[in-house]
From TrEMBL:
<dbReference type="InterPro" id="IPR008272">
    <property type="entry name" value="HB-CoA_thioesterase_AS"/>
</dbReference>
<dbReference type="InterPro" id="IPR014166">
    <property type="entry name" value="Tol-Pal_acyl-CoA_thioesterase"/>
</dbReference>
<protein>
    <submittedName>
        <fullName>Tol-pal system-associated acyl-CoA thioesterase</fullName>
    </submittedName>
</protein>
<dbReference type="InterPro" id="IPR050563">
    <property type="entry name" value="4-hydroxybenzoyl-CoA_TE"/>
</dbReference>
<dbReference type="InterPro" id="IPR006684">
    <property type="entry name" value="YbgC/YbaW"/>
</dbReference>
<keyword id="KW-0378">Hydrolase</keyword>
<dbReference type="InterPro" id="IPR029069">
    <property type="entry name" value="HotDog_dom_sf"/>
</dbReference>
<dbReference type="Pfam" id="PF13279">
    <property type="entry name" value="4HBT_2"/>
</dbReference>
<comment type="similarity">
    <text>Belongs to the 4-hydroxybenzoyl-CoA thioesterase family.</text>
</comment>
Amino acid sequence: MTVWPDLSGRIVEGIHVLPVRVYYEDTDFTGIVYHGAYVQFFERGRSDFLRNAGVHHSELKLGVDGKSLAFAVRKMSLDFLKTATIDDVLEVQTRLIEQKGARISLHQQIIRGDEVLVSADVVVAVITADGRPVRLPAHLSQRLNEACQ
């Protein structure tokens, strides 16, 4: 089995960086990246940020008191500044802002070179399978904080 060390990006100085190439499927009829595709890019960035921080979905499935955990986007504010087009290579940057109770606040940006194309402020809730908010287990919370230092 081949190992791809940067497949899920990397954390540099507390910021997770994930490279993303724009494909035809990401664009609309004008050849510009469709706004919904940016939301998918941000989701990939958050997922791989957690993976690189040592917060794995398999551990969330084990959960707390027999109840599996999940992350649910509670709030997302997007600011579209510039467009991307097919074949652009972008970076999705994810930075932890705050972790408090069942809430995790993040700031994300999609960058091409030195240009910020889209930025997002995201609040994610940690919930049980039945939708109740719950704190992230201490060992996972510690991993997340250590990765962001």
